[in-house]
Design goal:
By secondary structure, this protein is an alpha/beta fold. It is built from 12 helices and 7 strands. The chain binds S-adenosylmethionine.
Length: 307
């Protein structure tokens, strides 16, 4: 005869069975944990970037970074494919590369299985450049280079390919995005993909001329308070960047980098060089740029946003 305790244990077992307990549940596969993973994607790379732990598990902190980069990659891959189809080769310069998440993932997904194409990461911090070089060597990513240089220095750097098709700058600090634009214009790049970081230069000039601006126009109320000076300055900076690109013959799309909710800086600027300008769009953009600089007492920045 079974005791009360035995009965209770048997009942508990039955309940567990009904709930599916007691059967070892298969651990979720990597693909289940990260549906964005593509077939053939290098697990070694994801481990090296600390997106996967040594045991092959997802690191929740870096998972978010990977998702963000994937999101950006969706915009960049078609541009690379387009250039590759047109000329059988494609070069990409990634400015303010940091740990080069973007460059490595692009290489893995787009360049690795092709025989042409090159990615160059430009980064001032020499220790990050050293690490990225080591990683590229370990992974056999032969057509990946890294320059320990500023964006400006990279313009004339002998190690950089003469022709650059695609310029990327992801949260490149302060005016590094402007330097990346100047770089793209000098190289006549086909595409620029920019996610600007905060830029203090424009807000600084607005602050300097605030009293004069307030006397001149009621619109200076838009940047009277210091917080507004910073925010409006940041917005105007991107407006001026877009006009500068348009004045140089680029068609510009501004959108939001969805999935970057944690970051205030989620504006994505996509610029595509247009073959011709039948409607006078360049000249209109040039005039608008000058007018905005004048209206906001920013004429001293006309070199920064030079046309
Ligand atoms: C916020 S991090 C972004 C890194 C990377 N693009 C990412 O999104 O993970 C900005 C990087 O730009 C680099 N940087 C800042 N100014 C630069 C310049 N003028 N030229 C090249 N790199 C620069 C910094 O050292 C830093 O690694």
């Amino acid at each position: 005869m079974s005791t009360h305790q035995d009965k209770a244990r048997d009942e508990a077992k039955d309940k567990d069975k009904a709930r599916g307990k007691g059967h070892a549940r298969a651990a979720p596969t990597l693909q289940e944990q990260l549906p964005e993973l593509r077939p053939g994607q290098s697990v070694a790379l994801l481990q090296e970037l600390h997106i996967l732990t040594r045991e092959g598990k997802l690191n929740q902190d870096t998972r978010r970074k990977l998702k963000q980069v994937y999101h950006l990659v969706q915009f960049i891959e078609p541009l690379l494919a387009e250039v590759m189809a047109a000329r059988g080769d494609v070069t990409l310069a990634d400015h303010g590369a940091g740990k080069s998440y973007l460059g490595f993932i692009l290489y893995d997904l787009f360049f690795k299985d092709r025989t042409t194409g090159r990615v160059t990461g430009v980064e001032t911090r020499a220790e990050l450049v050293e690490k990225s070089r080591g990683l590229a060597t370990r992974l056999g990513f032969e057509r990946m280079d890294f320059l320990a240089a500023t964006v400006q220095q990279s313009l004339t750097h002998p190690a950089l390919p003469e022709r650059i098709d695609v310029v990327t700058a992801l949260h490149a600090c302060d005016t590094a995005t402007d330097d990346a634009i100047a770089f793209g214009l000098a190289k006549d790049a086909t595409h620029l993909v920019l996610v600007p970081c905060c830029q203090a230069e424009v807000a600084g000039v607005m602050k300097k001329h605030k009293a004069l601006s307030l006397a001149r126009t009621p619109l200076a109320e838009l940047w009277r308070h210091p917080l507004h000076t910073r925010e409006f300055g940041s917005q105007i900076t991107n407006v001026l960047r877009c006009l500068q690109l348009e004045a140089h013959g680029y068609s510009v799309t501004v959108t939001e980098l969805v999935g970057w909710e944690h970051s205030l800086k989620n504006e994505l600027i996509l610029a595509r060089r247009m073959p011709q300008d039948r409607t006078g769009a360049r000249e209109r953009a040039r005039q608008r740029l000058q007018q905005v600089l004048e209206e906001l007492s920013l004429q001293e920045l006309s070199q920064r946003f030079a046309v």
